[in-house]
Amino acid sequence: MEARKPLASGLRRKVGCVWPSPDPTEHEGRLVLWVGDKPMNETTKPAWPLLKTGMVDLFKPVVFGNDQRMRDVSVTLMFAAVVVGSVPRMGKTFLMRLLLLIAALDPRAEIHAFDFKGTGDFGALEPVCHRYRAGEEDDDISYVVESLRELKEELRRRAKVIKSLPRSRCPESKVTPALADDKSLGLHPIVVGFDECQVPFEHGEHGAEIEAICTDLVKRGPALGIVTLFGTQRPDAKSLPTGISANAILRFCLKVMGQPANDMVLGTSMYKSGYRATMFSRSDRGICWMAGEGDDPRIVASAFVDAVAAEQVVARARKAREDYGNVTGHAIGKGPDKTTGSNILADVLDVILDGEKAVWCERIAIRLTMLRPDTYAGWKGENVTAALKPYGIKPGQVWGQTDDGKGANRRGIDRTDITDAVTRRNADRAAA
């Protein structure tokens, strides 16, 4: 790749026509040199195969673009976290929207689309979104925080469902197509997209919580059927936390300005290895290095689907979802729960430590206050009891040790009762 310009000069061709690459089926000394009659950014790309017809299975490869020879290039979104990075106006948001359109065409998938640029670039997806927001105002961030708390609770629920399944149904301890098809388990794919993700991560009040939940989703979510996509025009450690960038499987790097940004998106030492998105020109919109699908990174031009075409794809996806029975949340006018009660189950699970089967109500109240001081300030054991009562959870006698080491029997909550309540509530929501 470093020799493209000398090769192009010797062949009397434009740089965009000359593309050297290795041959993965042969030894390292084998060179494949593709010389086109037009630069890649001037070549007419084939229409996206899913533009007018067809549906998607997220567990299988799906065509999303073309290589230098205009051959189809596929991507598999399941079991992956995705990072998309570039300088402004290079096609990052179009690529993010294309990946979300692919997810929308799987009628089982639950779509969460968050546009922090606030221009409505994901607006075409609203009819199929379970959660949707465009903007960076305080109420927008609050909406996203509530949505992420729901996903955090859902992550825990899915882990327990997977753990409870017999090895014959779940041999690899991860979601399979058969499990995703079983509506009673609630293990359908969930795809969450964050465009301009640096905005929530740098938020003064909620940034730390958003980063913590997203990092957890990136690390544990893929095996549990949760796919996350992060797009940013400023790829650095603050805008794209290391816990996320280091664990992303699929990486798409359009034009960037330097080595740090290049390696933040594609991975450490990619620039040194010759995979340099700095070589793209301003006219190379939509052209990127893709890493994670296959052994080596490759250059891909993503399919061009404008807002009008995206609306047509979404209309088809919406019809398929109506037939399947999966039109929920924002698509039917419902937002995330915002009351304390909606989060109490997840928060109580948060404060019951690993290995604890049951905990005194008064201790749960103290831990909740430490977890969220603004929400649970002044809570006592009776407040915990009252908050859990609507979910059919009643305290029982729990043996434990006091602060001075003496044994005592006091009213407490069994962890199993909380996990059962979460499963019941999610089943009721799915039925509704």
Average pLDDT figure: 91
Number of domains: 3
* Name of the CATH class of the largest domain: Alpha Beta
Shape: elongated
CATH topology tier name of the largest domain: Rossmann fold
Terminal Cα span? 55 Å
Number of helices: 14
Q: What is the N-to-C order of secondary-structure elements (H for helix, E for strand)? A: HEEEEEHEEHHEHHEHEHEEHHEHHHEEH
Parts with pLDDT < 50 across at least 5 consecutive residues:
none
The strands making up the biggest β-sheet line up spatially as 4-3-12-11-10-5-9-8-6-7
Please report which band the strand proportion falls in: under 5%, 5-15%, 15-25%, 25-35%, 35-45% or over 45%. 15-25%
CATH architecture of the largest domain: 3-Layer(aba) Sandwich
CATH superfamily of the largest domain: P-loop containing nucleotide triphosphate hydrolases
Count the E strands.
Answer: 15
Helicity range of the residues?
Answer: 25-40%
- The class by helix and strand makeup works out as alpha/beta
